[in-house]
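In response to a reviewer's request, we include the raw inputs and outputs for one of the modeled complexes. The two entities were modeled together in a single run.
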Amino acid sequence: MTSSTPSKISPPVTPNNATDPIYEPAFDTVDIGLIVVDSAGRIVAWNDWMARTSKRSTAEVLGKDFFDVFPKARTTRLPSVIEDAFQVGSSSLLTHTLNSLLPLRLDDGGELLHNIIVRPVPTAESNYCLLQVTDVTAAVTRERVLRERQNARYHAIVDSAPDAIITVDADQNIQWVNGAVDRVLGYDQTELIGQKLSFLLQSEDTLVRLLAEGTIEQQDKRAVSVVGRYKNGTFGHFEISLGRWGADQRNFVTTIWRDVSERVNAESALSDARDALQKSNEELEDRVNERTREREVALRQLHESQKMESIGQLTGGVAHDFNNLLAVILGSLSLLKKALPDDPRISRLLDRAMQGAERGATLTTRLLAFARRQELKIEVVSLQTLIPEMLDFLRHSVGPNIVIHAEVMPDVDPVAVDANQLELALINLAVNARDAMPHGGSLTIACHNEENAGSAGLPPGSLVCITVTDTGEGMSEETLARAQEPFFTTKGVGKGTGLGLSMVHGFTAQSGGAMRLQSQRGEGTTVTMWLPRAKHGEKPASSEIRPAAPELSRRLRVLLVDDDVLVSMGAADMLLDLGHSVTEAQSGGQALKLLDSDPLFDIVVTDYAMPGMNGLELAQRIKELHPKLPIILATGYAELPSDRPIEFEHLSKPYTSAHLASALEKAFIGVGPA
Amino acid sequence: MTADIGELTHTEQDALAEIANMGVSRAASSLRQMVGEQVLLSVPSVRIVTRAAAAKLVERDNAKKLVAVQQSFEGPFAGRALLIFPEAQSLELVRSILGDEHTLEDVIDLEHEALAETGNIILNGCLATIANVLHRTMRMSLPSIVRGDGAALFDVDGPASGAQFVLFLYIDFNIKTRDVHGFIALLMDLPSIATLKAIVNDFIHAIEDQSPRHAE
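The model returned the following structure tokens for the whole complex.
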């Protein structure tokens, strides 16, 4: 249809008379765009608003095909909605939100945002389609400005927040996230939008329940602890605060996710450390208890050793006095035997008396050994030599029912001890073992170099260990505890002295070693002796026998010094009997005076233990004054200082006339004839 | 066809479902053109129910807050057409149409317009297809947005509610891998329902006459 008139609306379109003086100005005055197309798609009306915004005058477009005027609109929904309006009478709405519509401009040249409503306009003659174009630019701009203004502060906060902020709708679909989700959880923003919130949770827990139950009125004050899922598949601890809000009659919950994994892990580590501390406290307590027990044991041992020490001192003192008495008895008896006529009956009585006294002397020797007051002749002893040499004797002592094994390795070092005492100790142990094995058994003597000297209660220094083990009946704890006390014995009355283990104990202690007993009822007994190793370079004493000294034939003038008159008299008698002359002095001072007045003494025999000046001090004074005068020290026990060698001949008390003669000879020869 | 106005025979149900699917597929192609993505719409079932029953049906999953796009129509039969979603789902639908680049505020701001246009497309599609298929013309109003529960949408407590029935269609959307479930409801009075059924039966007979193979 072509229009012959220049009117805005072509004649066929004007059911109400298009040239109406009211309709026409009104049509051009409205503030929306109005376009009418006919069923063939041609523009039949086009108001001023359209002319202004499209820069196409009414005259220019009337009668033209709508899509020739707006060719790009062919790709929009417009063709189909216009067709539907004609075909089925449908009305359509096309919004700027979902569609890109016509190329319209504002007066300032800016883009004009618009919606289009397409409606059918049926008339009596024909059907038309009305397009109403509404300008929404101002509204959209206003909304945007308003929102930007409202949201500027909000965005400043949420976009710079260190915590992940996630908004979900009532169905727990994630609707919005802030930029921190990437840093906190590892997800890109677009990955999360539209997902269910449970996607970020390890399990559908408290949070999901809270969100489902909550209403906008009830605000949750407290943070919810959840285990969240990082994008890398691992899990972390989060505290989530909830903020409920509504928009456009819709409920949302904004969740703020704070990653507290570090804190939770630190707390867990702290708790572990606390547990460990408590454990170590308990261990410490255990250790303290153990140490307390050890200390109690040590104290008990100390008490035991103090007791032994007291008993030793007591025993030593008694033995000393007995020794002196026995010396007098023995000396007197030996002189008496010489003096009396050779009568067998008298001789037998004297012999019995002397045997008794000698047994007494043996007893005191053992007592002294226990009291560690025995005089020890320290020498270098090779165990490889000593033990095999003793075996015959030991076998003889224990009898045929008991088999003795000796295990002395060639590398065992020699020991520095008194060989005789060591032999005695081994004999004592062998006899004890025999008594513990009345029906036979075996006895093992073994030696090795002790590597743990200084520890386990052993004295410091290099030690050699000798163990003597039997397969006997063993000892009860009670017996074991008392076994080392002197005179304690399990043997029947009269069968033993009770001094065997005491002697071994005293011997090892005095030698600088130690002894230990291990035994259990029915399990046999092991006695372990630790003895000091000989210093490097010391050679075992040769068993070479010294050539007998030529008998002393001279008659000597002897100065005899002893504070005990009885002992002095006995000794004087022996010296006289040996054919020497004797001058007695009761003290060191008296002896020096005598020497001063009469320098012609051949020899001095002095007791050691004297009040005031002792025998050793006297001997040293005499040596200074009369260097060539021989001196003999008579000692009952190890009173002599052990730190330096004694340069004087000495004589163990009690001694017999023969011992005295031998000592005189040695002393005299050692110094040389005066 | 039975005397009971409130019931559809299997054949009528199938025919209406077929017409509805033609309508929504037409709408789907419009949406696809607009969104630039694959859009799938389908109507799995059709039934006629009372308004009260319809009000209950739309409150599925206890979602009482609903949003609907409403258009009225006039022609051989008249009434109101409603496209209904649970409120939370409608936002997802709009977001899927608008795209993920929009913020939540954008989506909320634009929801109204976008939903109105989307609903308009779908309802026009259905009504236009019915009109086309039945070779009738109808006048349809512009869309408006209604919010409320099922009773409010179907005006259950309103006058003469007992006289009105609802042609009730389930509709499933699948856009950009998102699934949104909604409903289409055509609210009509008894004469309109009767007319619709008569027209549908004409349609069925016409098809049976044209193509016996196609007969059910």
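As requested, we also summarize the result in words. Chain B touches chain A through 47 residues (CB under 8 Å). Chain B has one domain: 10-214.
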